[in-house]
Amino acid sequence: MKVPVAVVRLPRGPDGTSRGFDPNSPRFQALGPSSLSSLVTPNTAELEEEQQGRVLLRERYLRSLLAMARQPVSFAMYEKVNVTALFGASDIDILNFQVSELQTPLGVQREALLRCSDIIAYSFEL
């Protein structure tokens, strides 16, 4: 028997035909122009430059994750906790890191998942 799957849709926009946010709405304004400059900027050259910058930063970050594989990594976490582990992998949304041999103040965990929201910074040797 097939199970129906619900589809979540964005609410209708201010013009009634689009699905988005009114640029004059409080929600849009709260997000700030820096985070949504690509939506507000009509200048295509400026938009292209911003997108290229984001592409470069994303590529560097993904390459750094690849370089960390099977390397010892030091993580600075909240509450002044510092831990060390062998980096394994990241999930597709980069919300969790899978690590091995996690050395914590309480002992060593053979395998663990670290939530990225709990990590302030991390470092590793190239």
From TrEMBL:
What GO biological process terms does the UniProt entry carry, in alphabetical order? spliceosomal snRNP assembly
User: What domain of life does the native source organism fall in?
Assistant: Eukaryota
InterPro entries given in the database record: SMN_gemin7, SUZ-C
Q: Which PROSITE patterns does this chain map to?
A: SUZ_C (PS51938)
List residues of the SUZ-C domain: 1-25
A Gene Ontology CC term for this entry? SMN-Sm protein complex
Spell out the CDD domains in the cross-references.
Gemin7
Map out region (Disordered) in residue numbers.
Answer: 11-33
A single Pfam family it belongs to is Gemin7
- The protein depicted here goes by the name Gem-associated protein 7 isoform X3
